[in-house]
Every structure is written in C-alpha cells, then in structure tokens.
Design a protein that fits this description.
The chain is of the alpha/beta class. It contains twelve helices and eight strands. The protein has an eight-stranded mixed beta sheet with strand order 1-2-4-3-5-6-7-8, with helices on both faces. Strand 6 (256-260), helix 11 and strand 7 (278-282) form a beta-alpha-beta unit. Helix 4 packs parallel to helix 6 and helix 7 crosses helix 12. It starts with a helix and ends in a 14-residue tail after the last helix.
Length: 356
C-alpha cells in the first residue's frame, strides 16, 4: 500500500513537472494535427491525368514515390503548381518538388508569422499551417548526403517558434544547424517540427496522446525519406520528442535513436522499444528534467529514465552540456558525441566524444 501511494504521488508530480524546451510554465490542452495534408479533397478530385492521383490518406510513401517517378517533368510541375500544399507535405514526393511546393504555399499565405520560411536558400521539406503550424527544414543536400540526421523537438515548438533567435540551441532549427556544423557539413540534418507539441507544463506533457499522434507522423516521415532515396537517418529526440521516438521506435526507418533530456520513452527498457536501431541516451547533470519522476501510472508520466544503466541504452557523455536546452551548444561533449553518431563513427556503446 505504501509503495502504491508513493507511485500515485510521483504520478501526480509528473502532471505538473513534465515539459519540454520552455520549462516551468502552465500548460494548455492541444488538439493534434492528424490526417492527410490540407488541400487533399481537391487533389483527390483532380482528373487531369486521366487517372486517380494517389490518395494522401491511404497511399504509402513508396506508392507515392512510384507515382511521381512515372510522371513527366511537365506533369510534376503542373501538380506542384495546382496542389502545393499536398505535394509539399506528401511523404514519398521527390525532395526538390517538396521544397518548391512549400515555398509556393508559404508565399501565398501572406502570413507574417511564416514569411521568413520562404527566404531564398531555405529548404522547407514540410509546411502545414493548421493548428500552431508544422514545419520541417533541411540543412545540407538531403538526396546526396551519405549520412542524414533528424532532430525531433520537445514541447513549445511549432512553426512560429521553430527557430527562435533568443534560444538558438533549444529550437529544432538551432539544433539541426549546430549538428551539421559539428559534422563539418558532412551530414544533412532535418529539423522536424512535424507534430503538435505540448504547450508548457500540463496534462499534454505528462501523457502520451500527442506523442502517439506524433509517432505515427514520424514513422511515415522516415518511410518517406527511404522512398525518396535518402540515406537511412539517425534520430535525435529532445525532451518530449523522446516520448514520440519511443512510441515510434518499432516503426521508424532509422540507424540510431538518440534521446536527450528525456522524461522517458514509454518503454521499460531498450528491448521494450522493439527496434533494430541503436539506442543512445544523454542527460546533463544540470538538466531540470532529472526532477521529473520516472514513472508511468494511469497514463501519467513516461516510464523509466533512458539514461539509467538498467534501461540498457548506450550512454552519451553530457557533462559539459548546458542545462535542458544546451546539448547542442558548440564545444560540449554531447555535441561532439552526437556528431560521431550522426556520421556513423560511434560504436560499441562509446562515442568519439567520450573520454577514455
């Protein structure tokens, strides 16, 4: 009975403490963006090719890729012009077409919150204005790179806060840019804010509902990368993003799953993730996430600490990381280790960034 009470208290604490990049703020309930991209009804009704277009709600990324390979350059350009919101967000579409389509969508929106995303040279791989906005941006040449990494962020991230200047290493854009520099521009990195994240600290952050919706989107996204012919990626999952990666682990197409500042992965241990990917964990001693109870009870909390030895993940050094949002700060041992993992040079449970 006493143990039950301790678990119940810990679960109650989890509802007020589990969060993401912003830290200690009260949360508000969010509705996950799900389903096919905006504009899908018009896409389904399009008979310009004399045959049905692949259904955005049911076609696999591989079916989408096969469909686009069979089109002429003119047909691709026409579909992109008429249905940019579908072409830009449909996993399996050639990468260059997605960049072009999303630039069209963002410019047409005339929304000051997103105008910067259409700046010359930016490679926007996904853009969905529904809800608080979803976005994915590529740093480097995604189709030619030998190594690819995907950054999956935690709470308080959306299309508007995707690249906050005041928190450069606590946003997916900042994390991705820093990781790419750390690999000497040898790795293409995707900043993937492609799911509805919790806002502040509240029930959304302490439960798995948003993570479950995000996991489905992440799994399909990685399958879309494979269908488009990119290298198999490593995933870098921050805070609540590690919950997303934990729930998606058995379906994602990835070489490595790296969690940092994790409140738990909704798994008892590495074996419970049911993945062939290598699993790594980093936790900075100064990270406030250590104060979050590592329990899961009645749907609250996210389970054991992935950085604990008994979880079975490969340990990433993080002694010089700077708090909850400082794992990608230049010069830190965590960033050096991440770069080694991203380039495939970290083996046997150790990284080249770890002291000998």
């Amino acid at each position: 009975m006493r143990r039950y009470k301790r678990t119940l208290v810990a679960a109650a604490l989890a509802t007020t403490m589990v969060g993401g990049t912003a830290g200690w703020a009260s949360g508000s309930a969010q509705q996950a963006v799900t389903g096919p991209p905006p504009g899908s009804a018009a896409w389904r009704a399009d008979g310009s090719l004399g045959r049905a277009l692949p259904d955005p709600g049911s076609a696999s990324p591989y079916e989408v890729a096969s469909f686009f390979r069979a089109l002429t350059p003119g047909q691709r350009a026409d579909l992109t012009r008429r249905h940019p919101s579908v072409v830009g967000n449909l996993d399996g579409v050639p990468v260059a077409l997605r960049y072009e389509a999303n630039a069209l969508t963002i410019r047409a929106a005339h929304d000051p919150r997103y105008g910067r995303l259409a700046a010359p040279g930016r490679r926007i791989l996904a853009f969905d204005p529904r809800g608080r906005g979803l976005v994915a941006e590529v740093y480097g040449d995604l189709t030619a790179a030998r190594h690819v990494a995907v950054v999956v962020p935690g709470s308080d991230i959306d299309a508007g806060s995707f690249d906050r200047a005041e928190d450069p290493y606590g946003t997916p854009a900042g994390m991705a840019a820093s990781l790419r520099r750390a690999t000497r521009d040898r790795t293409a990195v995707v900043a993937w804010a492609g799911y509805t994240t919790p806002v502040g600290v509240g029930l959304d952050a302490a439960t798995g509902d948003l993570a479950e919706a995000g996991a489905r989107r992440l799994a399909r996204f990685t399958q879309g990368l494979a269908a488009a012919g990119t290298a198999k990626p490593s995933l870098f999952c921050h805070s609540y993003g590690s919950v997303v990666c934990g729930l998606a682990a058995h379906e994602v197409n990835a070489t490595d799953i790296v969690v940092l500042g994790s409140p738990g992965m909704r798994a008892d241990d590495v074996a419970d993730l049911r993945t062939e990917a290598r699993v790594w964990a980093a936790k900075d001693p100064s990270d406030w996430i250590s104060k979050v109870p590592n329990v899961e009870f009645a749907g609250l909390g996210h389970g054991p600490d992935p950085a604990a030895a008994e979880f079975g993940a490969r340990r990433v050094p993080a002694a010089t990381a700077e708090g909850h949002t400082g794992y990608f700060v230049p010069g830190t041992d965590s960033l050096r280790a991440f770069a080694a993992i991203a380039q495939g040079s970290a083996t046997q449970g150790r990284t080249t960034g770890e002291g000998r």
